[in-house]
Design brief:
single chain; mainly alpha; AH/BAR_dom_sf; 11% strand; binds zinc ion; 6 strands; two-stranded antiparallel ribbon; 4 helices
Length: 217
């Protein structure tokens, strides 16, 4: 037994137990102590993630981030809807104005012709040239009236909303400048890197140009 190992703790007892980790030899009593020390170290490590999980659950900042992002989406949606309403209201007003003024203009032209005919009859003031001119004028006005009644000279130019790249107007993207993080955005669970990128302001949609009145001919 001259080659027997001694306990690394007490040096007096024979080291009958060998630790597979640190390779030290221990007597039975000190081997138990050694294992207990290792167990305590493990418990301390386990505490850290447990504490972090507890902290994470108690202070879930993804809830406030979610609320903030959803609010931004609501705001964007409202702005778009408001713009659409505003554009539709404008074009309704334009339609009414244009049709009313067309009607008034034609009415005025008819009245002028009627007035002139009556005046010339009363005053017996007309020759052959006047008759030709007045007849042409009456024919011209008749054509204008027919056109108005067919509503054929005015229409709406409506640009299809398919032409708008809706998916690129608002989307979620990473604030991180780290390219790897940005690429992993879809699978990333750390919501703190997200923010909403409202890429194109509603004003750039130029709603006024999506619908406008135009003369067909
Ligand atoms: Zn010992
Ligand atoms: Zn050991």
């Amino acid at each position: 037994m001259s080659t027997a190992n001694h306990c690394s703790k007490c040096s007096t007892n024979v080291g009958t137990c060998n630790c597979a980790g640190c390779k030290d030899y221990f007597c039975t009593k000190h081997f138990i102590t050694h294992r207990k020390e290792l167990q305590t170290s493990l418990e301390q490590i386990i505490d850290t993630p447990n504490r972090l999980i507890k902290q994470f659950n108690e202070n879930d900042h993804s809830i406030s981030l979610k609320t903030a992002l959803l609010n931004q989406i609501d705001q964007w949606q409202n702005e778009i809807i408001q713009k659409v309403h505003q554009t539709a209201d404008n074009i309704r007003q334009q339609v009414t104005q244009v049709l009313n003024s067309q009607r008034e203009e034609t009415k005025k032209k008819f009245q002028e012709l009627v007035d002139e005919l009556q005046k010339r009859r009363e005053e017996d003031d007309f020759v052959e040239d006047d008759l030709v001119r007045l007849k042409n004028r009456a024919h011209q006005l008749q054509q204008e009236l027919e056109q108005l009644q067919q509503h054929s000279d005015l229409g709406l130019h409506i640009e299809k909303s398919d032409g708008v790249d809706w998916a690129h107007l608002i989307y979620i993207e990473s604030k991180s400048t780290d390219n790897k993080k940005r690429k992993n955005l879809q699978v990333k669970s750390d919501t703190s890197v997200y923010y909403l990128d409202i890429d194109i302001s509603v004003d750039y949609l130029e709603f006024d140009r999506k619908i406008k009145m135009s003369k067909l001919r």
